[in-house]
Design a protein that fits this description.
The complex is a heterodimer of chains A (about 525) and B (about 55). Chain A is an all-alpha fold. Chain A has a single domain, classed as Amino acid/polyamine transporter I (Up-down Bundle). Helices cover about 75% and strands about 0% of the residues of chain A. Chain A is built from 19 helices and no strands. Chain A is globular. Chain B contains 2 helices and no strands. The longest helix of chain B has 26 residues. The termini of chain B are far apart. Classes of the chains: A mainly alpha (about 525), B mainly alpha (about 55). At the A-B interface, helix 1, helix 9, helix 10, helix 13 and helix 16 of A face helix 1 of B.
Chain lengths: ~525, ~55
């Protein structure tokens, strides 16, 4: 089989940036900033970007290309190629579990965005008149009232998920170049244009209600950016900033290491990694930071800052569009943009498992896409059925989309810093590089990043862990969701074990070719 | 809007826009790699969708 490769330099950058840019950039970041000191939040945020985000991304890009040019694309094989230890390939189970399970609920959220975009297009959402109406619309739409409500109720969500699912699999089936790269080359500029259109609309709103002069564009921007430096003394602020960088850049998702394995030997990773990170920051700081909360503040006042991610996106913002001149059009643009952002992310979650099925079992893309589709559909059905209070979705998001990515990031950092080696890593990073990366970045990855990751992980465990563990023992849906995750994990470990035996029989890791200039 | 808010917003947005502009300028002005001149993205046939199953 011919080795898959990215066709263009900008294609891989857009694909990695597309993977990172998602709902978190537009909905999670503004909420985190407002709740943690406003403008002051940007100080720990940028420090985390420099100390944690960019160095870890470079490490992933470097290891991925190193293994890729030696013929390894899936995380279990990449780790085994770098770390000559029988346990190495099993560490790759995390890099398969995370994108697979995140895909299972992310595709549902993606379908929410599509549903809201359609509802704005046909004017349905403009019929809702008050905050309670938007709240109950969301609850009915996602089936939050009762488990199984989506199967018996009138919500079209199941059909929207099926459509979204098919869109994803059509694109992933077409492969790296014709599917992911071709789509991201159109989707990313389109997303930027749509978001800029909404931004211009928000920044030209003025003071819509003369009776409330404080609720203006300037007031909204002030609400988002006015710094409260006292919050810098609180550890929670630093924890939130580090967490936001971590989630936003998709570090520890097992995606970048897979994407970069399709690079050629002389392809740049230093400038490409920095460019994809900077694009993600553009969508987050320049678009998310200027649109979401300022718009919500202009129409809702201080109440805008009290919303969670989903509440802000699917309850508060529809209120804003209902009151905004041209709200139907801009509501459609906004949710369609979120839908595209979500597709570029969900696509990237499928490729790591596809790569493993192809590499581990010699399956062609048709067969591996079909098998993955079956597994993903099971999980997706689980999330759709257990919709009461978004129980399954929330549990998947916490245990896999939050906790396990720390574990995988830590594993990757240790493999890079202490097994691969920072001298080798530095040399590998600069092969074909178009920018120079200072040596201290390697020292950061080896010494600072693991400690930093551990501190954040312990902080997240301490602040949110006990509540989730308590809920798990009390709520059978939560317990069932954790059991589901455990079953998928065990299945992946078994698959990796079988694939490992095939690789051993083929002598795949016996003579890993050292490539020289 | 307070001066502090304007400053932090301006510095944050300005820094990110500068960084992304620098990166995109460098990427887009690089000479194309050899393969790019030979094959467009939609012309590469990775052959993994043929003879499936």
């Amino acid at each position: 089989m011919a080795r898959e490769q990215w066709a263009t330099r900008i294609g891989v950058i857009l694909a990695v940036a597309g993977s990172a840019v998602g709902l978190g950039n537009f909905l999670r970041f503004p909420g985190q900033a407002a709740a943690n000191g406003g403008g002051a939040f940007m100080i720990p945020y940028f420090i985390s970007l420099l100390v944690l985000g960019i160095p870890l991304c470079w490490a992933e890009w470097t290891m991925g290309r190193y293994a890729g040019i030696r013929g390894f694309n899936s995380a279990p094989a990449v780790y085994a190629a770098i770390w000559k230890n029988p346990l190495a390939k099993y560490c790759g189970a995390f890099a398969l579990l995370i994108p697979l399970v995140v895909y299972m609920y992310y595709v549902v959220i993606e379908a929410w965005c599509l549903g809201y975009a359609i509802d704005y297009l046909n004017g349905n959402l403009m019929q809702v008149k008050d905050a309670d109406g938007f709240s109950s619309h969301f609850s009915d739409f996602v089936g939050a009232g009762e488990n199984g409500a989506l199967l018996t109720g009138s919500s079209p969500l199941v059909w929207l998920v099926i459509i979204t699912f098919i869109c994803n699999f059509v694109l992933i089936y077409r492969g790296i170049t014709k599917g992911i790269e071709a789509f991201c080359r159109i989707a990313m500029p389109l997303m930027a244009i749509l978001a800029i259109l909404v931004l211009v609309r928000v920044l030209t709103l003025g003071t819509p209600d003369p009776a409330k002069p404080d609720q203006s564009v300037a007031g909204g921007l002030n609400f988002m950016w006015n710094p409260d430096f006292a919050t810098l003394a609180k550890p929670e602020t630093w924890l939130a900033a580090s967490g936001q960088i971590f989630f936003s850049l998709s570090v520890g998702f097992g995606i970048v290491i897979n994407y970069s394995s399709y690079l050629r030997k002389k392809d740049d990773v230093a400038l490409s990694g920095l460019t994809s990170n900077s694009m993600n920051e553009f969508f987050e700081v320049c678009l998310g930071g200027l649109i979401t909360l300022p718009a919500a503040f202009i129409f809702m006042g201080m109440a805008a800052g009290e919303q969670g991610t989903f509440d802000l996106g699917f309850k508060a913002l529809p209120n804003v569009f209902a009151l905004m001149p041209g709200g139907q059009f801009f509501g459609f643009l906004w949710f369609f943009m979120l839908f595209i952002a979500a597709i570029t992310s969900s696509l990237s979650m499928l490729q790591p498992v596809i790569a493993f099925l192809e590499e581990g079992f010699g399956l062609k893309r048709h067969a591996s896409a079909a098998l993955l589709g079956l597994i993903a559909a099971l999980g997706c059905g689980f999330v759709l059925y257990f919709s009461k209070g978004l129980g399954a979705l929330d549990t998947f998001d916490f245990w896999v989309g939050t906790m396990l990515i720390f574990v995988l990031a830590l594993i990757q950092t240790l493999i890079y810093g202490w097994v691969f080696g920072i001298h080798k890593g530095h040399a590998e990073l600069h092969t074909g590089a178009h920018i120079r990366v200072p040596w201290f970045v390697q020292l950061i990855v080896k010494y600072v990043s693991p400690i930093y990751l551990l501190v954040i992980f312990i902080g997240v465990c301490a602040t949110t862990g006990p509540g989730y563990v308590k809920t798990m023992t009390e709520n059978p849906v939560v317990m069932g969701s954790v059991a589901f995750i455990g079953t998928v994990f065990a299945f992946l470990l078994l698959m990796i074990h079988i694939a490992g035996r095939r690789w051993d029989a083929q002598g795949k890791f016996e003579n890993i070719q050292e490539l020289h200039d | 809007m307070t001066i502090e808010a304007i400053l932090i917003m301006g510095i944050s947005v300005g820094a990110v826009v500068s960084l992304v502009s620098f990166c995109l300028y460098r990427v887009l002005t690089l000479p194309p790699v050899e393969e790019e001149t030979l094959k467009g993205p939609l012309e590469i046939d990775t052959r993994d969708t043929q003879d499936a199953d």
